[in-house]
Amino acid sequence: MPCQEIDGGKAAMLFIGLYLVALGVGGIKGSLPTHGAEQFDENTPQGRKQRSTFFNYFVFCLSFGALIAVTFVVWVEDNKGWEWGFAISTIAILVSIPIFFFGSTFYRNKIPSGSPLTTICKVLVAAMLNGCMSRNSSNAIANLSASPSYEPETNKEPEENTKQTDEIPTQSLKFLNRAVVNKPAHPALECTVNQVEDVKIVLKILPIFACTIVLNCCLAQLSTFS
To answer: What is the annotated localization of this protein (predicted)?
Structure first.
């Protein structure tokens, strides 16, 4: 049977459904892995092992679901009709939603402390502005005066020495260390060492993200050929 062109309300329903699917998939892919990783304590060996196990099962379930979608669901659509294929997907989603909410009382929810995009922009702007300012004794990078080879006094606890070392920015991407100054160009641009280090991590993974663009484009095209 040749395909029939649709228009009017049917076309609007089709495109609205496709856009909602794209919006939902984008939200799930960005939030679900992060939510799962936050359920484990990364400061303990057991927590790190459990988090690694979670990602193994997570990727396995994604791959297994994709296998079912391109085999069984496609067979149902070809032999029973497209409405049956969409019905299977809809039922699976409706079943998964209450299962997810039933575990809400056991989840570890991390309280948001601001947008990461705001932090990234603040660190980059602060580094550029502070780099343009003339360097003087009042604008020295915070805590860089402390030498890593400094021998602490005997009456100080090891925890205090560890905190001092943690406050020293790393030497990678040193231009971002300019954001950590005692007197920033503007009070709103005051940054902490942790914020600078977080931005460094994001910048370091950008090349990895760029390498996956071509692969994801190929995977997206495969679904249009089937």
So the answer is: Membrane
